[in-house]
Structures are given as C-alpha cells and as structure tokens.
Write a structure and sequence with these properties.
Blueprint: E1 7-8, E2 17-18, H1 35-40, H2 50-62, H3 68-72, E3 81-84, E4 99-102, H4 104-120
Antiparallel strand pairs: 1-2, 3-4
Length: 122
Amino acid sequence: MPRKAPTPCRHPGCRALVASPGFCAEHARDDIGWQNDRLRGTRHERGYGTAWTKLRAIILRRDGGLCQPCLRARRVTRATQVDHIVSKAEGGTDDESNLQSICDKCHKAKTARESARARSGT
C-alpha cells in the first residue's frame, strides 16, 4: 500500500513537511492550538455551563432559529449560535435582552470587530 504524501507543518509560516497531519518537531511543543482554551478555563468555569445551554435554547426558540443581524439586513439565515449583543468583556450580561441568535458568518465578523476594538483600546 502506498504511503500518504507528507503535509506541511500546521504552524503558521512553517514549510517543513511532516509524515502525518500536525506539527514538525520544532513546533510540536509550542503553546498553540487549544492551549489558550486550557488557560482560559473550561466552558463551565467561564460561565457557559448547563444554565447557558438552557438559556441558549430559549433564545434560539425566541428568535425562531434565525440570525438576527441577517434579518436586519433583509436576509434569512439559519442561526447556529447565540451571541451577547454587548460582549461580556464590555460589560454585557446574560440577560435575554442582551442575547441574539446569530449565524456563524455574522458571529465571526462581530467577534473580529470586537477584538479589533479591544486591541485598539477604544
């Protein structure tokens, strides 16, 4: 049976080839990947435990399973996530009035805007 072709190391910018998908020897021990989540704590430690799962179901049902930012832009898109309108980092709460159903694309874009705002300090 033929061997699988080597793949590039998954570390950004590294061009080393590895026999199996993953990292080369130089980058195998770097603090990358899910390490950040381990540093942040579990979802329960961050406040996203059983109570959040129940609240998430309530919000998705309330919004009819539709992405609210897409609806405002006159598009109909299935929501897959629940988002804090005002992020918790900016003082938002888990109150139902601060939560909205959102699709993956809108959630990534909103998170990117919030991250950029946090990095710029405004």
